Amino acid sequence: MSMNRRHFMSHLAASAALTAPVATSFTNIMRANAKELQKKHKACIMLFMNGGPPTIDIWDLKVGAATGGPFKEIETSAPGVKISEHMPLMAKQMHHAAILRSMSTREADHNRGRYYMHTGYVPNPNVTHPSYGAVLAKELSTPDLEIPPFVSVGGSSFGPGFLGMSYAPFVVDTNGDVRNLNMNMEPDRLAQRLTLLNQIEGGFAASGRGESPVEHKKVIDRTVSLMTSEQMKAFKIDDETAAVKERYGIAAPGAQPAMGMMRRNPGFARGALIARRLVERGVPFVEVEMGGWDLHANTHDTLKNNNLPTLDQAMSALIEDLDQRGMLQDTAVIWMGDFGRTPRINARSGRDHWARCWSTVVAGGGITGGQAVGATNEDGTAVATDPIKSEDMMASVLKGLGVSLETTYTSKNNRPMKIANSGKVIKELFA
């Protein structure tokens, strides 16, 4: 690990860095390996589509309407639930998933939308709220976990707010590389540096200068413990079989994509596989970010040729993999973005920001799949049933994972704040 001054000062200043049908062989491999690592613990994987995905072209098509776009619908494994023709692999997994088609939010600005969808609260200058990841890290982590309980792959996510740096996102790239966590010095020299660092940090933490030094020391202590942890192998997919990697959409070095398997973003595929490996080892929350969704122009060409093939293969593989390993019932998978995109197609063949009515997807984690909850009207311009808010989805995921909705935190300004912003449980998810 590179333990340099710049690394630790960056913590102090920013606080966010650590903070095709499946082949039989693939199924058999998953079942065999499950016996070695499977543990019954609760976890959540968030697939975050950064930029705001056009859900009207993915999960809630309006075929024949002027707003509908060129895509067709296909049947899925959930009776009566249809999705985009460019999601054929996910169509086979929809009996595990529920589409929330009546999401209705107010935040159509990227930063505000991301914050709201990650926390269940609108931004407030007087308080920074904890994100999904921080809440579940606090509620579901176990003492034997050496890896941080909140891992963000491919993006920085949102932080712990008033819950403290112990629950900040641990950020890795989609190769599983952790910044500043590569050993590059002799053990004796490293030990000397760590001793000196511990003296400095210990004195600073005991100086009575508030909570930040104490929280920062916790982060450093956690970082040091990671350096020799066997659990860190979860970040590397080298020991996964070729069949597993192929199913997620990860081609071997130099290999060409198989017929019909268009891989346009292997990083997201690697991130999804890393997420499975992490929850398998006890990490309660993993977020995997996929960018490229701010589609103000050429929406449908980009979806068809890039985003949807990548999403379809990796998301379907993740859900199927968790199911085959006996982990899906205890692992919630959330698919969402900043907001949706306009029903109206603009002059650049794109769709603009739209929060009034759109879709998210949840699977596993104790919820009832195989359904679409809520509906929009014929052209997708309004919600036609009871609207669903971010905090309602969050409350429902927490319920499915066994977290009490009576849990109440205290913010830095001593205000009681109920978990999930007192969101209402979506009753259809537990029918």
Brief overview:
This protein has 431 residues and is an alpha/beta fold. Helices cover 33% and strands 14% of the residues.
SSE topology:
Elements: H1 5-14, H2 24-37, E1 43-49, E2 73-75, E3 82-84, H3 88-91, E4 97-103, H4 110-119, H5 132-140, E5 150-153, E6 170-172, H6 187-205, H7 211-226, H8 242-248, H9 266-280, E7 285-290, H10 299-324, E8 331-337, E9 340-341, E10 353-354, E11 358-364, E12 371-373, H11 390-400, E13 408-410, E14 416-418
Parallel strand pairs: 1-7, 1-8, 4-12, 5-6, 5-7
Antiparallel strand pairs: 2-3, 4-11, 8-11, 9-10, 13-14
Describe this structure in words.
This protein is 33% helix and 14% strand. It has 431 residues and is of the alpha/beta class. The protein has one domain: 3-Layer(aba) Sandwich (Alkaline Phosphatase, subunit A), CATH 3.40.720.10. The strands form 4 sheets. Strands 6-5-7-1-8-11-4-12 form an 8-stranded mixed β-sheet, with helices on both faces. Helix 9 (266-280) packs parallel to helix 10 (299-324). The longest helix is centred in the C-terminal third of the chain and has 26 residues, at 299-324. Mean pLDDT is 87; it is low at 1-24, 29-39 and 259-263.
Give the key terms.
Alkaline Phosphatase, subunit A; 14% strand; globular; eight-stranded mixed β-sheet; 431 residues; alpha/beta; two-stranded antiparallel sheet
